[in-house]
Amino acid sequence: METAFVLGGGGLLGAHEVGMLQALGEAGIAADLVVGTSIGALNGALLAAAPGDAVAKLTSLWRSDVVRTAFSGSWVARLSTLARTGTHLHPVTPLRTALEELVPVGRIEELAVPFQCVAASVERAGAHWFTEGPLVEAVLASCAVPGLLPPAVIGGEHFFDGGLVHSIPVGRAVQLGAKRVFVLHVGRIERPLTPPRRPWEVGMVAFEIARRHRFTEEMASLPSGVEVHVLPAGATGPVSPLRYRDSSQIGRYIDRAYEASSRYLRTGGGWRC
Hints:
Layout: E1 3-7, H1 15-26, E2 33-37, H2 39-49, H3 54-63, H4 66-69, H5 75-85, H6 93-102, E3 115-121, E4 126-130, H7 135-142, E5 152-154, E6 157-160, H8 170-175, E7 180-184, H9 199-220, E8 227-230, H10 250-267
Parallel strand pairs: 1-2, 1-7, 2-3, 7-8
Antiparallel strand pairs: 3-4, 3-6, 5-6
Helix pairs in contact: 1-3, 1-10, 2-3, 2-7
């Protein structure tokens, strides 16, 4: 049976996916295919590069200062970057450097496990799936959060974060032939949405509706014979979009998702066929 791991986007909340990967590994479940978007592309690339060492490497990465450096800098530094570029708050260099140091291969085709990630093409206003070519460039394109990081430029085309077009791309895994899919997400889909009460919440709620709607539609249209497991993150409580740099809860995210997903895999409940 072709087994796919689908890793969704969500910034620092992506630490939940590390706990899920640990639970899957302990349950003896391995991926034949890895599909990722945004921070899920970063986690997925490291998994596809070295499946046996991925959990240890990702745990070390997420518990270190490396992830935080992608969004480091004072408000003065961020506003200076915005004033200079006119489009984003953070340079991409820290994230690029971290990826180049962590990923042991140069091209997607060289990964140990088949891997694809998605980004949003600005010029074509649509999804672009990276199936071959330079791995770091593809992951950076998938992680290019609008307003926070600059768009990635590949072959003269500009790309933004893959979450704009596929926040949890379960449909892609099924299109590629997966018969068993494990969905690794960041916990947002476990939290009910509430109407916005503050000006800055309006856009975030609108985007969340769009991202959840696409995932819900893909889940509802799954062909018969496909088994999909949406692993629980054990998420509780809202997360403020203004705290996107807050890494203080990363250890808790990993541990909480590990415990919740381990319980799920032991009981074998809740899957969708």
